[in-house]
Give the backbone structure.
Amino acid sequence: MPEGPTIVLMKEKLSKFVGQKVISVEGTVKIDYKLITNKKLNEIRLFGKQAYLIFDKVSVRIHLLMFGSYEIHEQTKPYRNLRIGLTFKNGKALFFSCSVKILPNEILKTIDWEADVMSDIWNPRKAKAKLKENPEMMVCDALMDQNIFSGVGNIIKNETLFRIGVQPESRLGTMPKDKINDLLSEARNYSFDFLKWKRENTLKKHWKAHQKKNCPLCGKPLARKITGKYKWRSFYCETDQNFF
């Protein structure tokens, strides 16, 4: 599943279309194309793994889901996978195998933008309060909860927990305060490291735990286990990561 940093890169590539009118719309998604045809794209806002293409009255929400992708200008993927394609005067934005919805702009007022870990208005105090409200929640579930850490996915989850030395099935209520603080800071820090390495095309070279066989610290085999209510695979060291 594409994670927050990947969506940040997508926004950067789409930014050339801001201020331009949509000339035509195509694709397999069943929506009213008239709502955005000949309408100007005013802004692009991100909320974690979701991108909102904002027009005067409506927004197009794009979520790449597990295997979604996008292309700019040239289409190389089959039309059957094209959910929506937007043609502007200066090029095309094409989205494949993803969720596409047209929503009234009023919905934007209901989103907690401060929950996005890569946003300039990320609010760690608010996130900390949400963690405190859920003492029985596993830390792996907390990281994957988009209402708390919007944009965090399984890679960021595994690498953040390795950085702070905490096993994924630890309960929030039993974690020391310093580990909670580390969790808040490193979820954001690793997200920006992810973005940097993604730009350099070196992301996998920097993985310490995710999809790795052995711990880079002690050399012992890493545990591989489906954890939490979201049932994502965790990679962690039972020696160098503590269970709380």
